Amino acid sequence: MTNQAVAMDTVVLRRPHFHLLDSSLYFLISKRPYADLTASEVQVWNALREETPLAELLEHFPGAAADAINRFVACGICELTCAHFPTGRRRVLVIEPHSDDAVLSVGGAMWLRRDDCEFTVATVGSRSNFTSYYYSPGRPYLDVEEVSALRRAEGQLAMRRVGGQYRVLGLSEAALRYKDANWSAEWFREHGLAARVGTSRSYSSDELRDWTSAIELLISESACEEIWAPLGVGPHCDHQLTRDAFLNLMRSNASLFAHRTICLYQEVPYAARYPGYTETLVRELAQAGASLVPVRISIQDAMEEKMRSVSIYGSQFKISAMRADVEECAQLAAEAGCPAEVLWRLERAPAKTEPATLHVHAAKIKSAVPAVTKWVQRHRSAKRIRLLLLLPLGRGGRDIADLRQLFPGTAYQVYAAPSAAAEMRALEAPDVHVHQTGAGPAAWGRLALKLMCSRPCPTLLIAGEKRQSAARKLALLWPLSDTLILSSMDQFLLALPSRLA
User: Fold this and answer.
1) What are the backbone dihedrals phi and psi of residue 482, each rounded to the nearest 5 degrees, phi first?
2) For the chain, which domains are there?
3) Burial environment of residue 89 by CB neighbours within 10 A (0 to 12, 13 to 18, 19 or more)
4) Are 18 and 77 in contact (CB under 8 A)?
5) 388 in Cβ contact with 360 (< 8 Å)
6) Looking at the chain, which terminus has fewer C-beta neighbours within 10 angstroms, N or C?
7) What phi and psi values does residue 117 have, to the nearest 5 degrees?
8) Which residues is 96 bridged to in the sheet?
9) What is the tens place of the pLDDT at every residue in 42-69?
10) Half-sphere exposure of residue 322, counting CA atoms within 13 Å on the CB side?
């Protein structure tokens, strides 16, 4: 630490999450001190700017700076990095859906290659209100500008560690596309689950157009020699949206990618949380005409530095909660027993991509095609359709529009659980009548008795993944109503892609 040569080329970077009150540091909106500082540590902390040369601190606080900075780094409130990196490095552009995806997925590779490559990470969905406080009761921290700025600062810091650059493209992530505003605590209590469900719903054609345009502008302005984009693993629609926008762009503007190396990277933590999905995606892309060559990068010598970079995203998670996923993904990608990260060099783009075949639940969507197709054909002229929602739709406005397209002139009787009711009440119209049910099995049992005595009506029951068995038993109580039971509206709509193209 006190070696003069090292100190001259080292800068101290404050993490953006902490504020000093009296002599204690607090993490974001926490009321519990994260660290209590001595008087000399307070002086050193107050002297830290956005980027402070270590030599300057050692000169100004000769008896205190070394110990203070050592403690700050050990506690995870400061970072040390080189003031200068080699010139002429290979320029690599890494595109990520959200701020943290790139470091989670390829942070080890970036660390190992920091002296050879100048990395620029660009976040597409950079407008966000998500933090680890999202679901803390009575403690909302939902200001879009504040959270977006915090996440941007995390990205900048993570990239500064490897001598790279950070950019934001300014598009809203999926939860904000549900409602783009500063949510109140009351609004969040009513709509929170619907907004969360919306993050796993398929994207719209307008969203695909907007993300494609943003990525096209990014690449056209970049002098990069190499581009890494996400494979699109996991349930979050922004990951699939980023991948598909990127692949669409490769087809529509191939000259933009000429003489550039193109790679798709495996995403962490989703590769571990959805086993087999990565292999399925690679296989489906190959069947669609893509040529993919796996490139495994051993990160055995970089694992702890990767964890350090991942921990910078403290607004999102504690490293203790993410470590096991990072390690498991590294083992899934391992070569000769060494933990690794994996990319696929894309030597030829797929001729086309079909959202239904690349969806995380593609197998379930495929299995639903016969039943959905026949159910739609039977009821194209129905006067009424009943929607039973055990959970929110998440994209209710778009779903109702698609249903109107499929069933012209039909009226909808919607029975919504409390978590789904607020979303649907906002969509009430002359042809959409919404009834809120009570919560729990007893309330749905009472509704079932009511429906037993009602006139038969084609019924679409959205039950989620875990309530399929209960939903089937419930539907036995109104056998004449031709009930189609699905886990989500995506399973319904993606089973009819040609009709909704």
Assistant:
1) 50, 75
2) 4-82 (3.90.930), 90-356 (3.40.50.10320), 362-500 (3.40.50)
3) middle
4) yes
5) no
6) C
7) -125, 140
8) 123
9) 999 999 988 999 999 999 999 899 999 9
10) 25
375-388: pLDDT as tens digits: 999 999 999 999 99
Q: Are 240 and 358 in contact (CB under 8 A)?
A: yes
Quick one: how far is CA 283 from the chain centroid? 23
DSSP state of 233: -
The amino acid at 386: R
Torsion sign (Cα): 16, 21, 25, 26:
negative
Beta bridge partners of 499: none
Question: Three-state secondary structure along 39-81?
Answer: HHHHHHHHHCCCCEEHHHHHHHCCCCHHHHHHHHHHHCCEEEE
On the question of a cis peptide bond just before residue 269, with omega within 30 degrees of 0, the verdict is yes
Query: DSSP per residue over 460-485, as a string?
Result: EEE--STTHHHHHHHHTTSGGG-EEE
Sign of the CA dihedral running 140, 145, 150, 152? positive
Q: 295, 317, 240, 231: which is closest to 267 by C-alpha?
A: 231
Q: Which amino acid is at 255?
A: S
Q: What one-character-per-residue DSSP string does 314-373 give?
A: TTT--HHHHHHHHHHHHHHT-BTTB-EEEEEEEEE--S---HHHHSTTHHHHHHHHHHHH
Q: How far apart are CA 328 and CA 325, in angstroms?
A: 5
CA distance 167 to 122: 5
Query: For residues 83 and 53, is the Cβ–Cβ distance under 8 A?
Result: yes
pTM over 0.90: yes
